[in-house]
Known about the structure:
Layout: H1 3-7, E1 12-16, H2 23-33, E2 35-40, E3 47-53, E4 63-64, E5 69-80, E6 83-92, E7 97-104, H3 107-115
Antiparallel strand pairs: 1-2, 1-7, 2-3, 3-5, 4-5, 5-6, 6-7
Amino acid sequence: xNELTQRLTVDQPxxxxxxxxxxxxxxxxxxxxxxxxxxxxxxxxxxxxGIRVDRPACDDSAADFSDGTGTVHIxxxxxxxxxxxxxxxxxxxxTLKGSGHLMLVEQAEVEVAAAAE
Length: 117
């Protein structure tokens, strides 16, 4: 396992990442595109990962996107430095900050998610 991947297997501060880290963009990416950006802020320069959303594993029942309140639980897969991983994060909609970590998975799980796009 890559050293960066190993460091991110422990709960870390995260923020909504990507080119437009906004509440509206998070909602659109989560519900329409199926691909969100989660940025781990405690690495040199931050590590911004594009996550293929595993919609059944996500939970937005405590989220109110129209008011920008509550939290959303996001899970999805990505390959980081040749390591297939699942990103697990909880984001506070008021601040677009939260906590998250990576979990090593089988390459097949990442490939299945990619094929479903």
